[in-house]
Amino acid sequence: MVNAARAASAEPSRGLALRIDNLSHGFSLEGHKLPVLERVSLEIEPGEFVALLGPSGCGKSTLLRLVAGLEGADSGSLTADGAAITGPDPTRVMVFQDPTLYPWRRVWDNVALGLEAQGLLKTTKGKVDEALAKVGLSQFARAYPRQLSGGMAQRVALARALVNEPRLLILDEPLGKLDSLTRIAMQQELIDLWQRQGYTALLVTHDVEEALLVANRVIVFSDRPAQIKAELTIDRAYPRHRDDPYLVDLRKQILGLLGLGQSW
Ligand SMILES: Nc1ncnc2c1ncn2[C@@H]1O[C@H](COP(=O)(O)OP(=O)(O)O)[C@@H](O)[C@H]1O
Ligand SMILES: [Mg+2]
């Protein structure tokens, strides 16, 4: 018992197993039902990095919100390590396209938010410093959000998620607003963090190349209501190279699935 407890606390947070079974969901829109997800089934292994691609408005963010427990699904089931997802939980943390930092709080205090909300800050202050170190922002702990670049603000948002030691990191186009050079650097950071922390990662991106560079598996959705159109396993070690012919070929295939085959 003692050994098991010690081993568990010494290990980095391990990834969550996620199972999505026959999940359907819709919204009411002016008296009509708008179907958004249709019988989506997906199994994600602990520690996998899965990227979701699909046309804008098909239901990707909706799926992430259901996984995060921010909304309840109309039908079907969602489980984390076999237990039904019935609400938000600090083991499943979401990062959005906008960093949404509180402008009046310093970087450190923004990252501390989750621990503060759980009443844990007094005993776990060191975790804030650790999370800032993980994203390379220790020096900016006392800065205000307005003093940061877009990439740095997004790294703060990542640190704010990591401070909870998530077992599932849910990323909704987290790099979507960054310039292309920052984006490339942060794609590498996402891979490094994931490899070091061992969590399961679920990423929505509109960038096919990004999905192929970071994920073990890519899921392609249809137009709304989103159904899984294809699943591709990306059998390449990291770091990957965007001009790798294997990835270039997969990119063409995926663009074809998204109806953009002729555009590139
Ligand atoms: N809270 C909501 N109420 C009504 N309709 C919504 C709501 N959230 C999303 N939708 C609709 O659901 C569809 C899918 O949205 P979303 O999941 O955000 O798409 P994606 O992330 O793939 O671009 C869209 O048509 C959107 O208008
Ligand atoms: Mg979205």
TrEMBL record:
- Determine if Chloroplast is one of this entry's keywords: no
Q: Which Gene3D superfamilies match?
A: P-loop containing nucleotide triphosphate hydrolases (3.40.50.300)
Per its UniProt record, what PROSITE patterns does this chain match? ABC_TRANSPORTER_1, ABC_TRANSPORTER_2
Which keywords accompany this UniProt record?
ATP-binding, Cell membrane, Hydrolase, Membrane, Nucleotide-binding, Translocase, Transport
Domain ABC transporter: start-end pairs: 18-250
Which Pfam families does the entry mention? ABC_tran
The record's section on SUPFAM superfamilies has:
P-loop containing nucleoside triphosphate hydrolases
Gene Ontology MF: a single term? ATP hydrolysis activity
* The protein's Enzyme Commission number: 3.6.3.-
Q: Which domain of life is it from?
A: Bacteria
Q: What class of enzyme is it?
A: hydrolase
* Entries under PANTHER family matching the protein: ALIPHATIC SULFONATES IMPORT ATP-BINDING PROTEIN SSUB, TAURINE IMPORT ATP-BINDING PROTEIN-RELATED
* Membership in a protein family: Belongs to the ABC transporter superfamily.
Provide the protein name: Aliphatic sulfonates import ATP-binding protein SsuB
